[in-house]
Write a structure and sequence with these properties.
Helix content: 55-70%
Order of helices and strands: HHHH
Distance between the termini: 21 Å
Number of domains: 1
Largest sheet: none
Number of helices: 4
Mean pLDDT: 74
Radius of gyration: 14 Å
Low-confidence stretches: none
Shape: globular
């Protein structure tokens, strides 16, 4: 979870997080969507794997509609909340 939080830090990102952010943006401009997701540890690993596969569907974010990192984070949070409620 801390790694995903680090990737969301656009003000003072670590070098590796900044690299991943830049590469992710480059891929998005090429039409390749990258989804990062965190699945909490569970005693039942098979169940965690199934949940991870279920929520790991591509999320399309229109870059023109969401201009800030904060806006993207809110959009992703809302999409995951909807998927979680459905699950």
């Amino acid at each position: 979870m801390s790694t995903l939080s680090s990737l969301g830090n656009t003000i003072y990102p670590l070098d590796i997080a900044k690299f991943v952010q830049e590469k992710t943006i480059q891929l998005m401009y090429k039409g390749i969507n990258i989804t990062f997701s965190w699945v909490p540890g569970h005693a039942n690993i098979e169940m965690a794997d199934k949940v991870a596969k279920d929520v790991a569907q591509p999320i399309n974010i229109q870059l023109l509609d969401i201009l800030t990192c904060f806006g993207i984070k809110i959009h992703i949070k809302n999409l995951f909340q909807i998927k979680w409620q459905i699950h």
